[in-house]
Design brief:
- The protein has about 400 residues and is mainly α.
- Helix 2 runs antiparallel to helix 4, helix 2 packs antiparallel against helix 7 and helix 6 packs antiparallel against helix 7.
- The protein has 2 domains: about 200 residues, no CATH class; about 130 residues, name from scop.
- The protein has a 4-stranded mixed β-sheet, with helices on both faces.
- The chain contains 12 helices and 4 strands; from the N terminus they run αααααααααβββαβαα.
- Keywords: Bacterial flagellum biogenesis, Bacterial flagellum protein export, Cell membrane, Cell projection, Cilium, Flagellum, Membrane, Protein transport, Transmembrane, Transmembrane helix, Transport.
C-alpha cells in the first residue's frame, strides 16, 4: 500500500492548534441553533405569560386612549402621560425580554462556548481581495449555506402550509365571534402557529449543529509534517535534545571521574564492574558511591585509582550489588553495611601497614552480600520488578 502523502490533512487538530484558533476568534458556531433557541425561548415565554402580558398591555392601551381636557391643551401633561405609559409597557415586557436575553447569551455554550478575542476586531484587509471573495462564493461552504437556505424555505413553508390548513376554518369563524373572544382566539392561533414553525427550525438546527462541529474539526486538521513541526517547536528538536543529553552525560562522567582520586576504595568485578566508595570519617552517615561504571568506564575508574594509589579490591558480588542498588552520590544500601564495613576495615589496616604500623592485612574472602542483591545470583530481585530470568543474566 502506498504511503499516505504528508500534504494530506489527515491528523486531528492538536491542542495547540485549537488554542490558537480560539485566540484568533475562530470557534464552531451554528446560527441555526442560536436562532432556534432564542425563538423557542420567546415562544415559550409568550405561551406561559401571554394572558398576563395581554391583560397588562390592554390596561395600558385603554389608559393611553383616554384623554382629558388638561392633557389635550397642556403639552407637558401629555408628554408626562405618554412617558408613564411607555415605562409601563417596558416594565410589562421586561420579564420576557430578560428571559430571551439570558437564552441568547447562553446559546453559544451549546456549540463553541463563550469567546472574546481582540484579534477578531483587528482589520483584515485580505478579506477585501475580490479573488478570494469570489472563491468563497463558489466554495463548498457556500454550497452548504445555499442548501440550508433552501431546506429552511421548504421546511418552514411546508409547516406554515399545514398550519394554514389546520386553522383555515377557525380563521373564517373569527368574524362570527365577539371582539374580545375573537382576539383571544386569534392570539392563541398565532402562538400555536409560531411554535409549530419554530419547531420546524429545530429540525434544521439539529442537522446544522453536528455539521458545524464536523466542519470545524475538518477545517483545522493538520498534516503529519505540521504535527512534527509543531512538536519540534513545542518540545524542541529531538536531535538537539539528544545532543544536550549526550553533553550532560559527558559532563556527569567527567565530574564522576574527578571524584575517583578522593575515594577510599574501588570495588571491582574484576573487569566488568567498578564502584568507588568514600567514607567521611567523623561524619554521620554511611559510605557513599562517588563513581561507578561498567566495561570501558570501569576500566577508566581502575586506571585513575591506580594512578592516584586508591586501593582496588576484587569483590565481584559486592561490586555487582553496589552497581545495581546504589546511584552516584547515594549512601550504600543498609543490607550491604556489613560487607562494606569489612572492606573499609581492610583498607584502613592497609593504610596503617603502609605507614609502618602493624602487619599486612588479609584480603576479605567471603563478604556478606545478600543473594537477592547480586545480579548473577539465581535469587536476584531488581530494585523494581520481578525476580530475574536466569536465561537473561549478564555474564561477569
Amino acid at each position: 500500500m502506498a504511503d499516505e502523502s504528508d500534504a494530506e490533512k489527515t491528523e486531528p487538530a492538536s491542542a495547540k492548534r485549537l488554542e490558537q484558533a480560539r485566540e484568533e476568534g475562530d470557534v464552531p458556531r451554528s446560527r441555526e441553533v442560536a436562532t432556534f433557541t432564542v425563538l423557542m425561548a420567546a415562544g415559550a415565554g409568550l405561551w406561559v405569560s401571554g394572558d398576563s402580558l395581554i391583560r397588562q398591555l390592554q390596561t395600558v392601551l385603554i389608559s393611553g386612549l383616554k384623554l382629558d381636557q388638561e392633557q389635550i391643551f397642556d403639552a407637558d401633561v401629555l408628554f408626562h402621560r405618554i412617558a408613564v405609559d411607555v415605562v409601563q409597557v417596558l416594565i410589562t415586557c421586561l420579564p420576557l425580554g430578560l428571559a430571551v436575553m439570558v437564552v441568547a447569551l447562553a446559546s453559544p455554550m451549546l456549540i463553541g462556548g463563550w469567546l472574546f478575542s481582540a484579534k477578531a476586531f483587528t482589520p483584515n484587509f485580505g478579506k477585501l481581495n475580490p479573488i478570494s471573495g469570489i472563491s468563497n462564493m463558489i466554495s463548498t461552504n457556500a454550497l452548504v449555506e445555499l442548501v440550508k437556505a433552501i431546506m429552511k424555505t421548504i421546511v418552514v413553508g411546508f409547516v406554515a402550509w399545514l398550519v394554514v390548513l389546520k386553522y383555515k376554518d377557525a380563521v373564517i369563524g373569527l368574524s362570527l365571534e365577539p371582539l374580545k373572544l375573537g382576539i383571544g382566539h386569534t392570539l392563541n392561533m398565532l402562538a400555536s402557529s409560531f411554535m409549530f414553525i419554530v419547531g420546524a427550525l429545530g429540525l434544521i438546527a439539529a442537522i446544522d449543529g453536528p455539521y458545524q462541529m464536523w466542519h470545524y474539526a475538518n477545517k483545522l486538521k493538520m498534516t503529519r509534517q505540521e504535527l512534527i513541526q509543531e512538536s519540534k517547536e513545542s518540545d524542541g528538536n529531538p536531535q538537539i535534545k539528544g545532543k544536550i543529553r549526550q553533553l550532560q552525560r559527558e559532563m556527569a562522567k567527567r565530574r564522576m571521574m574527578a571524584d575517583v582520586p578522593t575515594a577510599d576504595v574501588v570495588v571491582t568485578n574484576p573487569t566488568h564492574y567498578a564502584v568507588a566508595l568514600k567514607y567521611a570519617d567523623g561524619q554521620r552517615g554511611a559510605p557513599k558511591v562517588v563513581a561507578k561504571g561498567v566495561d570501558e568506564v570501569a576500566a577508566k575508574i581502575r586506571e585513575l585509582a591506580k594512578e592516584h594509589k586508591v586501593p582496588i579490591l576484587e569483590a565481584p558480588a559486592l561490586a555487582r550489588a553496589l552497581h545495581n542498588h546504589a546511584e552516584i552520590g547515594d549512601e550504600i544500601p543498609e543490607r550491604l553495611y556489613a560487607a562494606v564495613a569489612e572492606v573499609l576495615a581492610y583498607v584502613f589496616q592497609l593504610r596503617m601497614f603502609n605507614k609502618g604500623r602493624g602487619k599486612h592485612p588479609d584480603k576479605p574472602k567471603k563478604l556478606d552480600v545478600p543473594p537477592e542483591m547480586d545480579p548473577q545470583d539465581p535469587a536476584f530481585v531488581p530494585k523494581h520488578g520481578k525476580p530475574k530470568d536466569l536465561n537473561n543474566g549478564a555474564s561477569a
